[in-house]
């Protein structure tokens, strides 16, 4: 019995999942979830359009700085509570017996909503990248290339979701191997793009343009406030820099999780902070004509700014788009790996919540396959809900904005509950693990909590004016209705029986 399993038993849980993940494998899954390309690529164009390159470039630095506070706070808690329930389990125990059930209820549902919507963001952005790859392989927007219509796009979206569910059902060992490939894919592929793209581009933007140029486009976005434009330009960084808690979801499957879980959380933040900024700089320095990027008549139909930057660079030098297609395939691979990892994390959270009777028909969703030792029913529940989220693609143009906002608010909002509980609890009630902050814990948690509140708030803002049915950010409505129903369920019924994490081992009373 290693230290992680021993601590799990002390907390009242028996070991049920297979504990075979090493630090490197756990780090690989965590990095695959935060991934280098999946956050930056789909939102790069809109952030550049809001306020120009300078807020986009420096926004990554600012967001990375505050993300470290969140990551450090979560690493300390993960070291003390190495369980697959992670955030909602932490919330229950840190909030104490009086508020613990409500805290775990809110945290669990926020996290579940965020993770399942997170699968949708990967499926949507991956389909968008594949759409551009097919377009460039069959010509361009100017040459009659095939630009997949909404129906085909939805099929791509559903296909990716189903593939991830199949792999998570039948191939956990394969997933562990794929995630090892993924971390090298991110690092090596990222280095290739970061180095090659500026070298291939016939011309490069000046440092003054990249680091100091500010320009709003009210005629396109409808946003005339400079401060508002800058806030929206930060969204790409705030969306990209979360998901590092995936390491915590796998702690019941990780060797020495009370040490390796925190290491994986902080290492993934460090890797993505450095490579993410380098990727943003490579794209921005390689822009050939800023105004041409958003032209609906350009080679990529103005639909995918990073794809146009890659096309301009390679076609300008080699008079063909082969290099751009290859690098877009590297980016698409990142979306594939990211979606696979988020599906793994989402299923673990649904499994953990079902194990504690927190979801209707919990007995069905918490079943673990007797041979493969994976929560297969939870996997397919996540996939089904994700597909339902994507169905409006056929009629609504702002589906990605809504899904992205829901994912960020749910996922990051879930971080706030245990961090706040850790900040206000009595220190002598906290049993620290190997990673312990001591007196620094409260100020770090305070900064982290305030940053999370700000992040969730800005994702509720409209991103385009004037407000219309096809430009409105539907996230506030979706999240508001969802959380209202969940809280009504709590008030009318769940508070009578939901007590938070349910121990399945009899233990002596003591600090947790």
Describe this structure in words.
It is built from 20 helices and no strands. It has 512 residues and is mostly helical. It is globular, with a radius of gyration of 22 Å.
Could you outline the blueprint of secondary structure elements for this entry?
Elements: H1 3-10, H2 23-34, H3 36-51, H4 53-80, H5 86-137, H6 150-170, H7 172-200, H8 207-212, H9 218-221, H10 226-233, H11 235-240, H12 246-249, H13 257-285, H14 305-318, H15 322-355, H16 362-365, H17 376-390, H18 399-424, H19 441-458, H20 475-492
Q: Helix and strand string, N-terminal first?
A: HHHHHHHHHHHHHHHHHHHH
DSSP summary, beta strand count: 0
CATH domain class = Mainly Alpha
Structure annotation, total helices: 20
List segments where confidence is low: pLDDT < 50 over at least 5 consecutive residues.
507-512
Report the major sheet: none
CATH fold descriptor:
Amino acid/polyamine transporter I
Total domains, how many?
1
User: Roughly how much helix do the residues carry, as a percent range?
Assistant: 55-70%
Shape: globular
Mean model confidence by pLDDT: 85
CATH architecture field: Up-down Bundle
